[in-house]
Structures are given as structure tokens and as C-alpha cells.
Amino acid sequence: MTLDFTVSVLITIMAAATPLLFASLGELVVEKSGVLNLGIEGMMLAGAVAAFAVGVSTGSGILGVVAGTAAGALMAFAFGVLTLTLAANQVATGLALTIFGIGLSALLGASFVGVPVEELPTILEMFSDGEASPIVQLILGHDLLVYLSIVATACVAWFLKKSRAGMILRAVGESDISAHSIGYNVIGVRYRAVIFGGAMSGLAGSYLSLSYTPMWAEEMTAGRGWIALALVVFASWRPWRVLMGAYLFGGVTIGAFLAQGLGVEIPAQVLNMLPYLATILVLTLIAVGPWKGRLNAPACLGIPFRPST
Amino acid sequence: MALSYIGGENAQVEVGLPEAVTGVFQGLLLFFLLASDFLVRYRVRSVRLVTE
Q1: What is the 3-state secondary structure (H, E, C) of chain B?
Q2: CB spacing of B31 vs A89 below 8 angstroms
Q3: ∠A274-A213-A254 over CA atoms, to 5°?
Q4: Would you state the pLDDT for residue B16?
Q5: Nearest Cα residue to A304 out of A90, A54, A103, A29
Q6: Which residues of chain B are within 8 Å of residue A105 when distances are taken between CB atoms?
Q7: I need a surface site. Which of A61, A156, A234, A278 has the fewest CB within 10 A?
Q8: Which residue has the higher pLDDT, A204 or A139?
Q9: Is the pTM above the cut of 0.90?
Q10: Residue partners of B15: CB distance under 8 A and separation at least 6
């Protein structure tokens, strides 16, 4: 295996992991605030189609990414109105959001199928002609969003662990009634968390349609929203483990392609099962293992909150 | 739900609506169903805010 080949594989693994990382980080914050949003897939698709439409019509990738993020946040806001203000069932609303997102994105994107878009430039291409040694390519050969995803991991980790607002957010997720009784605005905190989660999903979608596969196709997320959801549990609600998990799952995805390319006789479907199998395995281990207490799921996850006045 | 699938297919055939409309319609239907659940569980009352 040559260095060139290894580097190109690593770069594709990072590219495959980035959308998962964005979506999982968003969902991590949402779940830490005690809300379970199953609509990641729908929000990602909305982000992907908005990013692509704006990217194609304005010719600016940055504007596209902004539009995708905003679209994801808007979808999440609708989710927030239903689950937080109207205290609807979060699981049902999340699934409705997915159905709605799939339909809406297919409808809006119908005229964009097959239209080419300019791929987001990598850092190398921005400052030179794109030629460099493999090591430099490994470090600088990604577009801005890949770096943003890693920075976002650090920011989310710091926010949840060290910042005051992050601690309030965790308090809201662990015991909504206690947080409410000492005067925190539970619904307000959850709204912000949900919208942040939607924005991150939209960002993940933008990355998919503008960089990973620079085109639009119906249901192009292909189940990544669900993997992102599984990843949060897999990582037991810790940001750096989410990063690790995303790269692991990205590696599995690329490994599936490579195995087929090298002529290994494994059906692609079996390899596609691996992320989910890994999640089931981790959940089982956590549930039966001696480290039972470490499954730090937020205590109020998925429970609607209505302050009784 | 099943009806909306059939209806969606009919709409495709007869009016020429894109398939995606079915999904949008079902999503909206579920949204409104979930939102109206609020009215089942809570009674909306008009109250006068007590100000100073």
C-alpha cells in the first residue's frame, strides 16, 4: 500500500465522517437538553436541498451553506413549536418531520436533479494549485466544513463541560422540574438547543450536497440521519466520542467501498449493517456490563415538559 | 395514512402532481394531528393578565 493511496483513503474517510459528525453533534446537544429529535434525516435533506438550490443559483458555496444551515434550523423550529410549545409527542413529531423533510426536499429539488454544482474548494486549492506532498494533502486537502466540524466538536465539548450556559442546558436535560423551580427557562433553553441541532443537521446536509457528492438526488442522505442518531447513543453522549464514532463509521463506509473494489466477496448490505450492529453491541455492553452507571443518558430525554403555574 | 398513499398515486395519475407531494401532505397531516392533540389535553381559556 503506497503512501498516496493511504492518504487518499484517509481523506475520503474524513469526508464520509463529516456529515455524521455535524448531525450527531447537533443531536447530542439537543438530547442533552432532554429533547429527542428523530427528524435529523428530514432536517439534513432540507439543508441539502436549500444549500444546493442557493449554491447553484448564486454560484456561491458559502451562501449555499448558510442557506442550508438556516433551512435546517427552520425545520427544527417547527419541531420545537410542536414538541415544546404544544407538548406533542417527540418521537411521533420527529418521524413526521422526517416524512415531511423527505417530501419537501424531493418537491423543491425536482428541478435540480442532474444539475452540476461547483464543489467547495479545499484549503489547498484556495491558496495554491492543489499539488502537494501526500502529508500536506492529508492536513490541508479538505474544505472548510471538515475543519469546522472538528472545531465544532471542541466547542460543543467545552460548552457542555465548562460553560455556564452548558451546565444549565444539562441541568434542564437531567431534571426539568428542578431546573424550572430554581428559575431557569426550560422551554427557552430547549428551543435554543433544538434550533442549534437543526442548524447542525442543515450543515451536514449542505456538506453532502455541496462537497461530498456535489449534486442533488432525492433522499440523498441515504439513512445518514439515522446513523447520526445511533452515533449519539454509541458515543454515550460525549462529544469527543462522537468524533471518534463518526470517523469509525466513516471508515466502515469507505471500507465497504474498498472491499468491493478489491473484490472481497462481502455483500454491501452486510457492511451497511455494521454501524447499526456496532450500536446495538455497545448498547448491550453498556446495559449488562459492570459499568452500568456510565450510560449517561439525560434523565429527562423525550419527556415533554409543561410548567404547571 | 393508507388512503393518502392511494390518493397520492391517483393525484399523480390524474393531475400530474409529483410523487413528493404525497410526502409533504402526509408530513403536514401528521403535524396538524400532533398539534391538535394539544387542544385535546388542554383547555384554552382567555385570561386577563394581572398587572400592577
Answers
A1: CHHHHHHHHHHHHHCCCCCHHHHHHHHHHHHHHHHHHHHHHCCCCCCCCCCC
A2: no
A3: 30
A4: 67
A5: A90
A6: 20
A7: A278
A8: A204
A9: no
A10: none
Question: Which secondary structure element, helix H or strand E, spans residue A238, and what is its range?
Answer: none
Q: Which residue has the higher pLDDT, A168 or A132?
A: A168
Which residues of chain B lie closer than 8 angstroms to A82, CB-CB? 31, 34-35
Q: For residues A161 and A163, give the distance between their C-alpha atoms in angstroms, rounded to a whole number.
A: 6
Span A273-307, pLDDT tens digits: 777 787 777 777 766 766 655 567 777 787 787 77
Cβ <8 Å between B23 and A99:
yes
Mean pLDDT check: name the lowest of A50-54, A228-232, A279-283, A288-292: A288-292
In this prediction, does ipTM exceed 0.90? Answer: no
Residues A24 and A237: their CA atoms lie apart, in Å, by 10
CA distances from A276 to A22, A90, A97, A272 (A): 18, 22, 22, 8
As a whole number of angstroms, the distance between CA A170 and CA A31 comes to 9
Sign of CA dihedral A120, A62, A67, A238: positive
Integer Rg of chain A from CA: 20
Residue A309 has a pLDDT of 53
| pLDDT tens digits for range A94-104 | 998 998 998 88
C-alpha cell at A243: 468524533
The minimal CB distance from B34 to the residues A89, A101, A218 is found for A89
When CB atoms are compared, the residue of B18, B35, B41 closest to A82 is: B35
Cell representation of residue A191: 428551543
Q: What are phi and psi of A216, to 5 degrees?
A: -115, 135
In angstroms, rounded to a whole number, what is the distance separating the alpha carbons of residues A68 and A233?
A: 26
CB nearest B35 (choices: A86, A106, A110): A86
